[in-house]
Amino acid sequence: MSSKKVSIGLTQFTDFTFKGVTGKTSMVRQIKYQDEYNPAFDYWKPLRDGIRKFHENEFSNDYLLSVANKVAQAKQKNYLEAVKAHLKFIKNKKIEWFDPGKSNWYSEYLSVRSSPELGLKIDGVSHLIKLYFKGKDERIDKNKCRSSLTLLKQSDFTIEHSTDIKPAILNVQKGRLISDEPSTEDHLIALESEAAQFMIIWNKI
Predict the structure, then answer these.
(1) Domains of the chain: total
(2) How far apart are alpha carbons 167 and 165 in whole angstroms?
(3) Domain residues for 124?
(4) Would you say residue 84 lies in a domain?
(5) What's 38's DSSP letter?
(6) What does the pLDDT look like over 147-203, one tens digit per residue?
(7) Which of 75, 143, 160, 202 has most Cβ atoms within 10 angstroms of its Cβ?
(8) Is the pTM of this model over 0.85?
(9) Residue 74 domain-assigned?
(10) Strand 95-97 relative to strand 118-122: parallel, antiparallel, unpaired?
(11) In this predicted model, what pLDDT tens digit does every residue of 7-40 receive, in sequence order?
(12) Is residue 108 situated within a structural domain?
């Protein structure tokens, strides 16, 4: 086993956990040998940043619509669909912003950058929310997201949060918030198993 700690993002880890056995190998290979991150090639970055600013600054709905209208024309249809789904999701809900802080999760050889984009109190319940933009065509539910939700709950945060705060993943295109009950010992074992499997594949390719 490599002694050098590998660092990945939570979206990458989530994508890995969604895959079957063969797909996991392909996903790790893609992560390991991908080009260095360049914001210019991050398809959803303007909207990811825009949704955070929208809530943090309590902007009007027009702000998010303007984000969609400013991207390249080839992206506008997907952006507008995602914006409309988000506005529908928050409609008739009492939404309050709080700073989610930065966070990381660590296993023996793997660290995951898990910082949630949003800290939102929704109808009185506080959530730490990771935005997920790949859920338009793929079925995403609580069972598939459980390891990622457990990871988010177990992360080390720069800000101290209440123990009853809910980790959540927002399927942006469907406007669906996925959260889970408190982590059990089985959930923690499953998370560590996923991380160990990731590293086994990483060291073999």
Answers:
(1) 1
(2) 7
(3) 6-40+94-204
(4) no
(5) -
(6) 999 999 999 999 999 988 999 999 999 999 999 878 899 999 999 999 999 999 999
(7) 202
(8) yes
(9) no
(10) antiparallel
(11) 999 999 999 999 998 999 999 999 999 887 776 6
(12) yes
